[in-house]
# Entry
Amino acid sequence: MSNYDYVYMFDCDTEALAAKLAEESRELKDLLGGKGSNLCLMTGNGIPVPQGFVVTTDVCNEYVEGGHKLPDGLEDAVGQAIGRLEEIAGKKFGDPGNPLLLSVRSGAKFSMPGMMDTVLNLGMNDEVAAGMVKLFGDERFVYDAYRRFVMMFGDVVMGVERSKFDECFNKVKAEEGVSDDTKVSAAGLKKVVELEKEVYRAELGEDFPSDPMEQLMDGVRAVFGSWDNPRAISYRNIHKLPHDLGTAVNVQMMVFGNMGDDCGTGVAFTRDPATGEKVMYGDYLVNAQGEDVVAGTRTPVAISELEDAMPEIYAEFVDICDSLEDFYRNMQDVEFTVEKGKLWMLQTSDGKRTAAAAIKIANDLHEEGLIDKAGAVKLVEPDQLDQLLHPQFDISKKPEAVGTGVAASPGAAAGKVVFTAEHAVEAAAEGERVVLVRHETSPEDIAGMAAAQGILTVFGGKTSHAAVVGRQMGKPCVVGCGAIELDFANARFTIGGQTVQEGDYISIDGASGEVMLGDVETADSEIIAVRKGNMKPEESAVYTQFTNIMDWADDIRTMGVRTNADTPDDAALAVALGAEGIGLTRTEHMFFGEDRIINFQRMITSDSDEEMQAAADVLEQYQKDDFYGILKAMDGMPVIIRLLDPPLHEFLPHDPEDQAELAEMTGKTPAQVADLVENMKESNPMLGHRGCRLGVTFPIIYKMQIRAIFDAACQLKKEGFNPIPEVMIPLVSLEGELRICTEYTKDVAAEVMAEAGVEVDYMIGTMIELPRACMVADNIAKMTEFFSFGTNDLTQTAFGFSRDDVEGKFIPAYIAQGVLQISPFESIDINGVGALLAHGTKLGREANPNLEVGICGEHGGEPKSVEFCHNVGLDYVSCSPLRVPIARLAAARAELANPR
Amino acid sequence: MSNYDYVYMFDCDTEALAAKLAEESRELKDLLGGKGSNLCLMTGNGIPVPQGFVVTTDVCNEYVEGGHKLPDGLEDAVGQAIGRLEEIAGKKFGDPGNPLLLSVRSGAKFSMPGMMDTVLNLGMNDEVAAGMVKLFGDERFVYDAYRRFVMMFGDVVMGVERSKFDECFNKVKAEEGVSDDTKVSAAGLKKVVELEKEVYRAELGEDFPSDPMEQLMDGVRAVFGSWDNPRAISYRNIHKLPHDLGTAVNVQMMVFGNMGDDCGTGVAFTRDPATGEKVMYGDYLVNAQGEDVVAGTRTPVAISELEDAMPEIYAEFVDICDSLEDFYRNMQDVEFTVEKGKLWMLQTSDGKRTAAAAIKIANDLHEEGLIDKAGAVKLVEPDQLDQLLHPQFDISKKPEAVGTGVAASPGAAAGKVVFTAEHAVEAAAEGERVVLVRHETSPEDIAGMAAAQGILTVFGGKTSHAAVVGRQMGKPCVVGCGAIELDFANARFTIGGQTVQEGDYISIDGASGEVMLGDVETADSEIIAVRKGNMKPEESAVYTQFTNIMDWADDIRTMGVRTNADTPDDAALAVALGAEGIGLTRTEHMFFGEDRIINFQRMITSDSDEEMQAAADVLEQYQKDDFYGILKAMDGMPVIIRLLDPPLHEFLPHDPEDQAELAEMTGKTPAQVADLVENMKESNPMLGHRGCRLGVTFPIIYKMQIRAIFDAACQLKKEGFNPIPEVMIPLVSLEGELRICTEYTKDVAAEVMAEAGVEVDYMIGTMIELPRACMVADNIAKMTEFFSFGTNDLTQTAFGFSRDDVEGKFIPAYIAQGVLQISPFESIDINGVGALLAHGTKLGREANPNLEVGICGEHGGEPKSVEFCHNVGLDYVSCSPLRVPIARLAAARAELANPR
# Structure
């Protein structure tokens, strides 16, 4: 099945192996796992590593696909490797006279909790133990190792509950009247081994295996089996990792950090993973094995203290760490053991770090000459940048959460609870900070959402209305917090047993989903503070580091980054964060102002064209102001303005009071208005009378918007600005829709420019957001100047998923069952939606080589989706302002991975 | 631009021209139009035709594309043709001494009302008129021809209102005190000409053109312009004709049927177009021009009377008709004129006919040896068969309609009005015929719809719930009858000023959309009567003719035809009509029986798996009976059974009474039930929690259905039948959905068959009805045995059109504006939905060469869609029972047009 040997020794020829793998576009760690390839590489670099061998990930995949059966010949290969290892170590596996003990560890390409970790001291049995006592003379040490091995093997390999083994140890400790592990006698430890073996027999119905080779093959089987366990699967789902990578098994000769005070073990980062500072960072424990450090039963000391305790060892360790950083050109996370004064490196891997650390380390390694700018860009994960941009709680002052919802829009918000959009607006007008709490939000809540510090809803998922608008506004938002019992009638809710009244303070963390009681302090991130001019650049190291990375990313990337922004403020923030234009200005939110909504309602409920036109004329002034502000903020940059998109029904008044007001204004009876509202209801509004369908059936509305756009642009032009409006027609499925709307757009534009006596550069384009549009993109492209893929709607229609309905209802179940790895609303579905997008792009470009193609769905700010857009050859992505840096970085990394 | 001359004389070499056109896959009539090519062909066959020439359709397209400008060189070409015509006729255009007069007529590939028809006597002016008086000595005749010409030219060519010219004539008639046109004096007619010219000048601001060539070119321009007029566009939309065919112009020398009693004119069919009988059928008028026959100002006599009046002419005419039928191998619709004892054929074309006539003529022509079986199949339009299958009103007894709605499901129904499904069921139980009248129907009305003779709704379009279910049930159905004002509270409605109480009789015609008061008599069509055994085959000529055509179609077609049927009765009817299996059994309607619905509700509102399973166990027995009946009716034929598809919400009780009943049964409070119902609501249910999404999240429901299917099949097998169940998993978008559902389907099937101790042949397949499924059809095909394209849902998602919402709201506007030619729910959208279907089929077949691919959307019974399915290579189409013959015939015709 595989082109490779089942097993590789650590001292194998990694260069030859890497070259062979490269022909299949695989890397060393694809075959050997991260841990395994690093052990081989360290060996090759002369670093003291306890020798051993790797069973490859290919074997794991064969094991999984073959219905959990080890492939024929594996045991022979492992036997041969053991033979080689015996030669290297000068010891023999299972030989009481000179026994070789092993550690067995999993090691996938990406480090992954949930998989089987480690079995130590494998190869131990009664005879070996007796032989070791003769050899080392330390009976306590030997039986301690033995009892650990039986427990780990029983627990980790065979799945017996660990507590059952702990009881054996506790029983003996009680008998001996000691509480400290290290105080138990050798005889006591020997007894623990016997008791554990009894547990093993009782639980599994068979004797503890004394054959070392049987132990080893069971261990290998357990590692491979753990690849498939639910925790591992769910980890891969959460981290968007594929399920077919497989894990390798690392078999390594044991070294002992617990043979006395000239022994010890530790873990360390080569730099501070929280701040990125260049200091050795980690823990060390004298006379201990690795698990003691992790288990926390004994308190380790800081790694720096090793310098005093064993200066030579420490110096050697620091040298090795430096050489590892030189080799890997990255900050490392290492494990080591000192056995009787000799340093052994057990493991090294790239260390995880915070965003702040990531940008500092990338800057520092660049300065140290270890990496070039591209290397620096590769060292920062785009997703992490979120942490640096959104306002944050001071972690030291953050109280415990009373509930947790879905983290929908990052950032920290605190304020008084309000339950209606109106109250939010009122309170904000009085200078109050408020958090808007709703069952779920609707477009009528927009003004309230804008006025609030943050939004908290009981229902909804990551792409519910609240979430989408929250992200769009850069507003912290927690949705789907089911722990809230909302008592709307009494203006209060309960959560975690506590009752919160309207006016009480709460705080929400949109990055974690946490809901906290009280007014927790928040602040703009440094980068935003500088960008807003509230802090000087030179005062902020993180700002400088961030700016460097962004500049380098911009030098590298070949795809443009625009923003989705509906207001001049959003637009300005996005430009400050590097946006090169607006990819989407929605015009629907603009109609929710007090004076506007009633005129909008008048327009769409009018009985005649004249009446409709009269209402449209009023709205035109407002719209002109909207567009004036945005075009001015984006002076000299393209601004795509999408004509009205949502179903008209969303704008209609639903409560009797508002209906009465509209009735009075329009001379209808309240019953007539109620009827009208009822008649405009749709069974599936997402698939109803909206987008350019409005443009075809009610051209007055679109013409009003177009006139406002060109009026604003002409005025700016006269004032010496350089507005570049780009009119976008949404939801086109049929060529005729685009033809009709494009024709009158041109007519109105020409008319307005002739009246004003100035010429404005503009374009007309269309959203591609329906599968049919992708299939006839060639016809569409001939009629238009740009495509902007609306991947939210395209995902909805390609899957037949209403995001309002499915995210809460069955997408979580789908992820749990492995049907989906991630919501397709979060990261673009490459095989389906992506295939439609690629098909549409190809057809469109073939028919119109000058066609500009971008994406303005929310995927435009998600790194994997950005990478896909780069690979398909889009001209730009567009995303919400705070995601612009993420998109810039992701685009640069995509270019590095797959140069255009 | 075109590869052809602008102009062809009637005596051109049609064979050479046809051969050249064939190389471009064009026919003679593509270039010359239907009328023009027939005139050329008649000329070639030695039939007496007034000579002339054709300006091609290519010129028309150049004219339209060039912004209504005649191409350079056309006038020269026309001038040369006139020269040739002058030679043939021995007269000269505009020469008072021997004038050539012309008729100018449009002639597109398909005959098309709305386009400019005819201008006669072109070439007339004062000098010519005077010359003609000298030549013929008949001043009355000449000035009658002149005044007709000025009127037609002014009206038809220049667009002056015809009534303005009529006034001139009426004025003179009044002055002379006569009422009969033929009594006006020659001087009077001369005066009419002068008055008409004044009108012309007043209306158009210029003199009536006296230059014959100017008249002719204006005429040509007018014909081309009329191709684009709104009536013509809308005709093409209605008849699904492309807009780029263009029309030809036929210029022909005039012959006169109005020069005395040895003159006349007539129209005739070579066979009876109502019955198909082989008798000459038509009208004749002595001393008249063609327009007099059409205008109805004088009453024509039956064509047979010509035999007495002019026996030689009649004999010649009959001979010519016979030779035309021989030549065209079809019944002809001809126009002719007798000028002073000489017969001229003016036009011939294939005659329109009723369905009954179509099948009789096809049979007769076959018997006469004129056509083979394929030829007979080509002579019957599949759409027409509807007329022969649905019950019909006796046309002589049908009263006038009081209102008209959308003709949604053909057939005639009469019965007492009921307003609720319950009343329908009760009344039907007492043997009453009822018509169910609703605002609109929902799945809860199913039982009532089944019990009713017909369904009438106030709202909804051709694919509303009532329409879809009506067609499915073969139930006459009129929807969207907005003229009804329903007063539900008082159990009555008003329509056309009349009030109808519950219990009053009404009648509806689902083929015409008519609503009539009273109990109009209806009867099964003969074919259905024979198929049901209520009439002997030998008693029904139409049955025999129909059966012949169907048999011949079956011999020809290469694509299978199945039916969509949910009951044994439907299945049996479909088999009698030629279905070769079931392509879709829906299982949702089955749950609406009294006992069933409450258990279904219990199942979907249960709090635990145990409770759900208990309810499912009860339903399983019902389902087994359902499947037993259908599989038995379809013994030996494949039966595709679709697992539950609609959103669960549709099954829940919405009124408090029903909610209380469910509460009592389940031990919940009514408020809890109401909450549950509310929680299960979705904003866009069409894109929500339905189809296989239920199969993944509530496997108990699907497993119950699967068990019932295989239980029924095993029992039948034991009883000696040969059931072939095929389990279909709906709404798959993700590979994992299919994997999960397929796995347990196999498990349950194996389990049931093992229990029963018999083996049943079965298949597992999936609906392909979401764009994503089409894009990943290769992955899906590897996991499954068949695809069935659900083009209803695929159309909804490809377009983003909710058919419930868009059909009434904007599709009519789209058709009116030329954005759509026809609703994509009616005839498959080939470029978009069709492209997805073709893509999915290609990917699927490549990945799994044994994949069976069919279609079960409603398009499966629509001829154009059937043709498309044939062309894409599908294995079968599936449609409602009464459309099975239509699909068989359409499939045969598709094979003839494009052999596999």
